[in-house]
């Protein structure tokens, strides 16, 4: 069996997220598996690097699959390009070791969240940025973000409930930059809970509005209560940028 | 009467072009006039800087209109932002002299055409670039473009037929740049005939493929026959960038 690793970009705007679901055809995994299965004449099962929420985008999502299909990776790329919808693109396919697993082997992931902080919307980026006209204070956001760096229990930063699984994660860095009113928040960590990046962003937005101080963010972490943290930021501003192995 | 000048950006993807038409509601002019008329309680008529084809975008389209409405331009901006569709944005409104006319007073216009010249489509730019996998030779395109600079009869570069109007126009410059496989062709001229920029781009693409030499482009100009020039490049890659007065 060959083990093939794919780098995928997708505009998640109209999709219900990465993971295949029974009640909808609109998932990234479902779309790609369907084309791969037709191509290989096998029931291909993709292993993704993780779930992405409904409406979230990806620049470099990683997945792998096993196949007996003998086609060259170039031929596969051409086939996928031909049959996948326009909003899903395969950037590369490469042969990897049998033991490679797109989810288990993840060392860290990088997400970016884009906020159009100008007064008016940008007609060309309206599907790829969250528009917020109230000016955010970048320095306040940066100070607040520093509290989250390191290993913490992020229970306040997920909408996951009643789970026995650990909610401890490590955030390696958060960079916040601004150019021409476009704010880009980059978050890198060893793993993320359900909705975690969007709740972090929602919390940093509150900090940027002056509603939360770094000590408040510390308190939110310690309280371990979802309702203490900021609101869930809109999906359309979020991109999975890179996965590190 | 006040004379107000607007700077407009629009994603033209789903529209039938700038100009109002009887048989469709999907024009930029139609959409904006409807909101302006509601706002001013007058039958507002917009004077646009020119037509743009179905599917063509604009970063800074200029239009003006006369009104007795006493609202401040800031209030007007907020109103338009509230009621216009997401893919049409008003960037500014300013008071101008009574004699200002958005079409008659145009000195020159700048268009850009974007070509994704990478092997695969870009999922995030698919509606704003023309995707062409065959590698284009930038130098050949630049050489060919130089033939078009200056004042010429551009009859071969329009789909307009049987017109008594002059087809003589002046191209001031054509810049062609490339970054990460994205080709950007910038064309500035004193005026453009129907489809002229897209036929120029279609012709430069032929040059970039090695199918036309600068002497061929000279011949195309001289022949004054539409079928001698290159094909019409797709609308979605074209943006009206600026209008100079």
From TrEMBL, chains A, B:
Q: Which reaction does it catalyse?
A: uridine(38/39/40) in tRNA = pseudouridine(38/39/40) in tRNA
Q: Does the entry feature the keyword Nucleus, yes or no?
A: no
Residue spans making up a coiled coil are none
Q: Which UniProt keywords apply?
A: Isomerase, tRNA processing
Which Gene Ontology BP terms does the record give? tRNA pseudouridine synthesis
- Cite the Pseudouridine synthase I TruA alpha/beta domain residue spans from the record: 9-105, 144-245
**Looking at its record, which EC class is this enzyme?**
isomerase
Q: Care to name a GO molecular-function term for this sequence?
A: tRNA pseudouridine(38-40) synthase activity
Q: Where is the active site?
A: 53 (nucleophile)
Where does this protein hold substrate? 111
Domain of life of the native organism? Bacteria
* EC number annotated for this UniProt entry: 5.4.99.12
Q: Which family does it belong to?
A: Belongs to the tRNA pseudouridine synthase TruA family.
The family database entries (PANTHER family) matched by this protein are listed as: PSEUDOURIDYLATE SYNTHASE (PTHR11142), TRNA PSEUDOURIDINE SYNTHASE A 2 (PTHR11142:SF22)
Q: Quaternary structure per UniProt?
A: Homodimer.
Report the NCBIfam families cross-referenced here.
Answer: hisT_truA (TIGR00071)
Q: Which HAMAP family match?
A: TruA
| Biological role | Formation of pseudouridine at positions 38, 39 and 40 in the anticodon stem and loop of transfer RNAs.
What's the protein name? tRNA pseudouridine synthase A
This protein's species is Desulfosporosinus lacus DSM 15449
What does UniProt list as this organism's lineage? Bacteria, Bacillati, Bacillota, Clostridia, Eubacteriales
């Amino acid at each position: 069996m060959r083990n093939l690793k794919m780098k995928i970009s997708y505009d998640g705007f109209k999709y219900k997220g990465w993971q295949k679901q029974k009640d909808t055809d609109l998932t990234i995994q479902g779309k790609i598996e369907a084309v791969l299965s037709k191509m290989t004449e096998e029931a291909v099962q993709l292993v993704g690097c993780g779930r992405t929420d409904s409406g979230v985008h990806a620049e470099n999502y990683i997945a792998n699959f096993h196949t007996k299909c003998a086609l060259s990776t170039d031929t596969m790329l051409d086939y996928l390009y031909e049959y996948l919808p326009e909003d899903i693109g395969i950037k590369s396919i490469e042969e990897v070791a049998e033991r490679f697993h797109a989810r288990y082997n993840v060392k860290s992931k990088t997400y970016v969240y884009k906020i159009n902080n100008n007064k008016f919307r940008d007609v060309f980026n309206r599907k790829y940025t969250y528009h917020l006209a109230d000016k955010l204070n970048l320095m306040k956001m940066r100070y607040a973000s520093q509290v989250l760096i390191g290993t913490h229990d992020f229970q306040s930063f997920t909408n996951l409930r009643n789970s026995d699984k650990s909610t401890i994660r490590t955030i390696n860095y958060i960079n916040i930059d601004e150019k021409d009113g476009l704010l880009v928040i980059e978050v890198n960590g060893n793993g993320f809970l359900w909705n975690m990046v969007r709740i972090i962003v929602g919390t940093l937005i509150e900090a940027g509005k002056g509603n939360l101080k770094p000590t408040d963010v510390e308190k939110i972490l310690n309280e371990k209560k979802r309702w203490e943290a900021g609101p869930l930021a809109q999906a359309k501003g979020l991109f999975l940028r890179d996965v590190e192995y």
